[in-house]
Amino acid sequence: MPQQHLNFAGRRLGICSLLLFAAALLHAAPTRAQEMVVTLDPVRTEIHYTLGALAHTVHGTFKLKNGAVQFDPVTGKVSGSIVVDATSGSSGNDGRDSNMHRNVLESQKYPEIVFTPQQVKGTVNQQGASQIEVSGVFRLHGQDHQMTLPVALQLTGPEATASTQFSIPYQQWGLKNPSTFILRIKDTVDLEIHAVAHVSPAK
């Protein structure tokens, strides 16, 4: 075959390859940008709190009641809610826990603590690690508060793990400080959450 025909064939093959590659990208783009549903596993999700006091620090846990959110990776918009069972709060001390539920959380009156995410800032990688910020409304003791949480996210196939740490100024938010004349307790509580979730395409 003459050299000019070979050159023309090569250019034609190269153009065809580029067109096929572009078509593949266009076909794959909706998959990568597809909205996803993240459903938290209450059994495998851990919620720990730390409350500092003079010469003493209280450690305790809460249980996740349920959690499911829908996320649009293009706009960063999020809908859904994450619900914590306020009545499950436990520090391992019956007297202290009774005081917490009766006088601080009033958990019989306000049995749920709810975070309603609204917006994700940062890139969520389809697999592997991502560092994002999630803004939304944190409802505690019947009152709503805007919050932005730093979240370390790890996606492995259809499973996701997420971790966050943040502080809640509970006294500033209107909850009673359980300090006594003898025991002085901080007016903020630190929370650490490690969540495990299942990820699926939105229908």
Give structural notes.
The protein is of the alpha+beta class and 203 residues long. The chain has helices at residues 3-32, 94-104, and strands spanning 36-40, 46-53, 56-71, 78-90, 112-121, 128-140, 143-156, 159-168, 189-201. The longest helix has 30 residues, at 3-32. Strands 1, 2, 3, 4, 5, 6, 7, 8 and 9 form a nine-stranded antiparallel beta sheet that branches. It starts with a helix and ends with a strand. Helices cover 20% and strands 50% of the residues. The protein folds into two domains: 1-32; 33-201, Lipocalin, CATH 2.40.128.110. The radius of gyration is 25 Å and the shape is elongated.
Condensed summary:
This protein is of the alpha+beta class. 20% of the residues lie in helices and 50% in strands.
